[in-house]
Automatic annotation (TrEMBL):
Assigned keywords, A-Z: Growth regulation, Transcription, Transcription regulation
Name recorded for this polypeptide: Transcription factor ILI5
InterPro entries: bHLH_dom, HLH_DNA-bd_sf, PRE
PANTHER family: TRANSCRIPTION FACTOR PRE, TRANSCRIPTION FACTOR PRE5
Organism: Rhynchospora pubera
GO terms of molecular function: protein dimerization activity
Family recorded in the similarity comment: Belongs to the bHLH protein family.
């Protein structure tokens, strides 16, 4: 990227937008040409929010599961070792 006070060229911006579009599941599924930058940023924000909700849900489910397990059980040991990884 350009080193002029953090400015980037139109070409660099287009490349970044294309890369971002490839990361979004909805954009990949539609397999449409390049979306507008504004629409893509809105989709990105929405996707990140949904990922946050999913992480929160999975964290809650894991906490509930751990609360029902015996601390010395093999399953609890496996989960603890996975969380340390």
């Amino acid at each position: 990227m350009s080193s002029r006070r953090g400015r980037i060229t139109d070409e660099e911006m287009n490349e970044l937008i294309s890369k971002l579009q490839l990361l979004l599941p909805e954009s990949r599924r539609r397999n449409v040409g390049r979306a507008s930058a504004g629409k893509l940023l809105k989709e990105t924000c929405s996707y990140i929010k949904s990922l946050h909700r999913e992480v929160d849900d999975l964290s809650d489910r894991l906490s509930q599961l751990m609360a029902t397990m015996d601390d010395n059980s093999p399953q609890a040991d496996i989960i603890r070792s996975l969380l340390r990884s």
